[in-house]
Amino acid sequence: MESDEIKEGFLCPICLKDMRSASLLQKHFEDVHSDDKDTLRQIRGMFGKAKRKIMDKIDNTDGEVVNNLTQDGIPEGSGNRGVDPFLWDHQEFGVSRSRFREFRDIRDAEIDRFVVETNKILIRLEKLLRSGVHVLVSPSLSARPGRKSLEKSLVPWIADSEVKFCPICKKQFNVARRRHHCRLCGGIMCAKCSAFASVTFSVSVLKLDQSGSHASRKWIGQSRDDSEEAGIRTCLSCMDCLERYDKQEKEKKAKPPVVQLYEKMKSSMAEAETLQPVYIKMADSINLGDIQYDLEEAAQVRMKLVKMYETVDILSKKIASLGMQAEKPPSPHTLKLQKKIRAYATGYLQENMFTLPNLPPLDRIRKLQEDRANSLARRATEEKAQRERAMQERLQAAKMQQHKREGSGDFNRNRPPGKVHTGRRTSPESGVGNGWGPVPVMQGSSPDPMLQQIDIIKSYIKQAKEQHKFDEVDMLQKNLMELEAEYTRQHQKR
């Protein structure tokens, strides 16, 4: 890689011919290589992309203008000086002319110049580093012979006879004030108006230290110049381009303090949102007198939640006061953003922190638990009484049905013998809907009416099975189970 020749300029990507300017390169490609449309679109968008990036940077700096006008539109610090502005004559709005297009053209030209100059400086800086003229593996080694001739071959130098004065400080060159050449642009300046770009800084700007190769590690070694000072001699203009380029690259990677604080605040909000439903469930359960959750556990969860909300409040206050004490205050857009973040955090705390349910004291919890236990006991007693009333109603209905059947049986005995229908001669189909007769009480049976009712329901179940009425069988069996359970409960109380 080091042996490859590094070229600079507006090179044609196909024939590698240097066209000296962007317009000539585009015209050359449209005339000579018009068939390759994809490469033509790439060349057209290459300068536009770099221009948009730099315009975004300039837009950010243009937004940092502070409005120093008062509410009346008069600049602060300037008085009326004894003249009432309301006594001035009204002045009609005259002819105006927009300078926006002129400003845009000048700005575009300046951006293009900066992009071209920066790219040219970066290419020449990489050439110097790859040539190894400014790197010594050991400080005991002498300077490389023929270093200046090699530097002149990489970057063309201006002749000494062409420059009589320093272009920066405007002082004449003499024996005491010597001429020095910039290794990146080839210009001439005096020693005071020159700067030195260290090899470490140059490697970091070109991102050569990210490759981790042996050559990149060698470039970070000791460097020397003809004045025995470390670094590559440059003019102030080239050094300013390198520093601006390095600053822009670092700003792309580094997050502003506002973004860092905002991300921490959002992280605390997310943790609080996951913990808040848990605490609300515990607090509601404890306030209802439930014994599922412990008071100490709920208090610990509440403390964690309050600390998260306090963190959100502290971070939002830091964001709102960020840059207020600095010499250069933030831009109006930045201040507006910081105030919006603080207002958002305040609304979030009012909606979540101030509406948290409180935990009752210990004696209140005991009373709530006793009330809940009594309420559950009353509910269980009411449900049991309802079940007993329902069973009594079913027994009364069964007795009424039994009396009706007994009355119908006496009526059949008074009929003529030819019209009496017995249960033995009636088929199951003919007895549907006619009900069943009770089993007569046998001698020696228990005098307990509860046992008699149990025997009657058993006889009903038997008759329903004979007539294949299985739905009524299920209902009667449930009644029989409830009746037997009630009979067992009464005897246990005795």
From TrEMBL:
Region Disordered: list its residue ranges.
Answer: 398-439
Keywords recorded for this protein, A-Z: Coiled coil, Metal-binding, Zinc, Zinc-finger
Q: Which Pfam family, just one, is annotated for this protein?
A: FYVE
Domain of life (superkingdom): Eukaryota
Q: Where is the C2H2-type domain?
A: 10-38
Q: Where is the FYVE-type domain?
A: 160-243
Stored Gene3D superfamilies: Rabenosyn, Rab binding domain (4.10.860.20), Zinc/RING finger domain, C3HC4 (zinc finger) (3.30.40.10)
Kindly give the PROSITE patterns that the UniProt entry links to this protein: ZF_FYVE (PS50178), ZINC_FINGER_C2H2_1 (PS00028), ZINC_FINGER_C2H2_2 (PS50157)
Coiled coil residues, start to end: 466-493
Q: Which GO terms describe its molecular function?
A: zinc ion binding
Q: What is this protein called?
A: Rabenosyn-5
Query: What organism is this sequence from?
Result: Acropora cervicornis
Q: What is the lineage of its organism?
A: Eukaryota, Metazoa, Cnidaria, Anthozoa, Hexacorallia
